[in-house]
C-alpha cells in the first residue's frame, strides 16, 4: 500500500491524510513528472486530486496516538499564527492547511470547546482568499461549542475544504490548492515527529518512513510554481531539504492477494500489497530535525 501521511490532520487533510491506498503497482493513476505538470494544467490538477483523494481519515492516526497513550498537547499547535496578519495569498493558503490540521487535532481529542479562536482564524484566511462562502462557520462554531456531534463537525469541515480545493483548481488557482495540502502535511508530519520522540513505536516509525513517497509527490505538485516568486522558491528549497533526508530510506513492497468486494451491484477487485520500511535511527533523527526546522520557518518561529 502506498505511503501514509501521519497525523491527525483534519478533516481537510487530516482528512486527507494517507497515500497507502494508492498503490503505484495497482495500475492506478501515477503522478506525472514536474515537466509534465509545467506543460499541462490538467495533469497538475489530476496530481493534486490524486494526493487529495488518497489521504485518509484522521480517526486512523488519532486512534494510533490514543492506543499509544499519547496525551493531548497544545505545544503541537501553531499558536503563533492565531494573531498574525497574513498578507499574501501564499501565506493565507499555506496557513489554511496548517490550521486545518491543528483544528483536526483539537477535534479528534474532543477539545472542540477551545477551538473557537482557531475557527475564527480559519474564517479570516478563507475570506482573504475569497473562498469563505464554502464554510458554514456558524454551524462549525455551534458544533464545536456543543461537543455534541463530532462526526457532523468533521464531515462539515472536510466538505468545506473539499469544495475550496475544487473551486481553486477550477479557477486557475491550483497553486493555492497545493499550498493547502503542503501546509496540512507539514503540520501533520510535525505532530508525528514530536510524538515519536517520547513514544518510539514501530508503527509510528513506519508511518514517518513512508512519507518518503508523499514528499516526492508533494514536490511534484509544487514544482511548477518554484520560480513563481520568492516564497515559492523558499518552499521548494525546504522540501528538497526534507527529501534529501529521506534519500537513503528504503521502502519495499510485497504484492498481496487481490480482494474482491461488491459495490453497486458489481464486483470490484482491489490489488493489495504490504510495505516494509528500512530506516536507521540516524535517518529518523535527521527527518525529525528537518521537519521541525521547516515547519517552524514556515510559521516564522525561531
Tell me briefly what this model is.
This protein has helices at residues 34-39, 41-54, 58-67, 89-108, 116-128, 137-146, 150-170, 174-198, 202-222, 230-246, 281-298; strands at residues 250-255, 259-263, 266-270, 273-278. The chain is mostly helical and 302 residues long.
Can you tell me about this structure?
By secondary structure, the protein is mainly α. The protein has one domain (34-247, 281-298). 58% of the residues lie in helices and 7% in strands. It is built from 11 helices and 4 strands, in the order H-H-H-H-H-H-H-H-H-H-E-E-E-E-H. The chain has helices at residues 34-39, 41-54, 58-67, 89-108, 116-128, 137-146, 150-170, 174-198, 202-222, 230-246, 281-298, and strands at 250-255, 259-263, 266-270, 273-278. A two-stranded antiparallel sheet has the order 1-4. Helix 2 (41-54) runs antiparallel to helix 9 and helix 4 runs antiparallel to helix 5 (116-128). The chain is globular, with a radius of gyration of 18 Å. It starts with 33 loop residues before the first helix and ends with a helix. 44% of the residues are buried. Residues 1-41 and 54-59 have low confidence and may be disordered.
